Amino acid sequence: MNILHQATEQELKAVLPEKTAGYIIKARKGEVGLIAGGGGVYEDLYLILMERVNVFVVEQTCPYPEIDHRDQEALHLIAKENGVIVAYCRIFQNGIMYKEASIGRVLVTQAGRKKGYGKLLLIKALEKLSELGETSVKIQAQAYLKSFYESFGFKAVSDVYDEDGIPHLDMVKTER
């Protein structure tokens, strides 16, 4: 098992409060790879899934299945503050979700909001995809976050549409 990327202290201090750690874990065939820092592998996987349900199902009142068969094919990025997951996203290389690489299930918990976690997650996700040789990334963004994603170079490639009762739009970022 190997760490795909663990944020350095300098990277974290530049963006996040003290006592914060950033991690990437890799899931393959139901087994989760190494998670640096405290806590067990399965405990962190459980906490990731719990936060996804808390944000996407409970907070956003979206009563649709949150856990899907794609988690085993994803790279998972989490940020913790004082040992508690405060932000998460998963990334896919091209050909898994779309012809482009993709980032999805981006969330920042209520306790982690307004602290730069969303920005750090997106930076790290894009860096990792670039390291993997990906040059085009597609997301299904919630419409109210369009300008946030545009600040990273994403461009809308669809009109707004309904996804489980929440306005979304497709956006793509291409390296040039």
Automatic annotation (TrEMBL):
Pfam families this protein is in?
A: Acetyltransf_10
Xref: InterPro entries: Acyl_CoA_acyltransferase, GNAT_dom
> What domain of life is recorded for the organism?
Eukaryota
The GO molecular function terms of this record are: acyltransferase activity, transferring groups other than amino-acyl groups
Where in the numbering of this chain does the N-acetyltransferase domain appear?
A: 25-176
What is the protein name given in its UniProt record?
Answer: N-acetyltransferase domain-containing protein
* Species of the source: Colletotrichum gloeosporioides (strain Cg-14)
